[in-house]
# Entry
Amino acid sequence: MIAVAMRRLAYWLLLASTVAAGADAVRVIESRSVPAEQLPAINSASHDLKLSLYAFTGTRWLPADIITAVAEALPLIAQCDVAIASAELRILEAQRRFHFFSTPVSRELMREFTVQKPALIFVDDTYSDPAYDAEAIGLSNAKERPELSNTIWLAYGARDLPLAIAHELVHVLSDNGEHSDAPDNLMRPGTAPSQTRLTGAQCNRLRVVAEANGLITRRAGVAGRK
Ligand SMILES: [Zn+2]
# Structure
C-alpha cells in the first residue's frame, strides 16, 4: 500500500513539475513606454528607430529608472538624425536563471521568447568574463550565437547608464566594435558625462549600416545619403 501511495505521489509530483515547466514559459506581465514628450523632437530626421526594452520582474531594476535612463540616452542617438519613433519597455516573468547574462543561457532565453530588435535587455548581472557592465552584440560578432544578434545586455549598476545605453546602441546600429580617441566622443572606450558627441562619419556609418540591417527605417521622401 505504501509503495503504491508513494508511486502515486511520485507520479503526481512529476505531473506537477511538468505543468510547472509549462507555466514557467517567459511572458510579458507589464508594458510601459517612454512618454512621447520625452522622445527627442528632431525636425531634420532622416530615419526612425523603434527601440524595445526588456526587464524582468524580481530583479533590482526599477522600470521607472530604465525609462529615465533611456530617455536621457535618446538625444545622443538623435544627433545622427535618427528619430526615436517609440521606446517600449516590457517586463518579463521568467525563470531566475534568465535574469543574468551568459551566452548559453541568454541564447536559450532568446529561443524561448522572441524579442523585437534592436533590443536592450536589463539583467541583474553578467556571467561574462571579463564582466562588462554592458555588452553589445551586433551581427558581425553574433556568428557563433545568432540568437543574440542586435541585442544589448545591461547589468544592474552599469556606470553612466544613459551614456552606456547610447554607446552600446551605436555599436549595434553600426554593427561595429570600433572606439574613438577624440576627447568628447561617445565612442571612447570608457564612458564619461563629457563624452557625448558622434562625428559625421560615425553617424553616416550608423545610418547606412542600420538601415541595411533593417534596424532603422528611412522616412518617406528623404533621399539616401552617401
Ligand atoms: Zn564600446
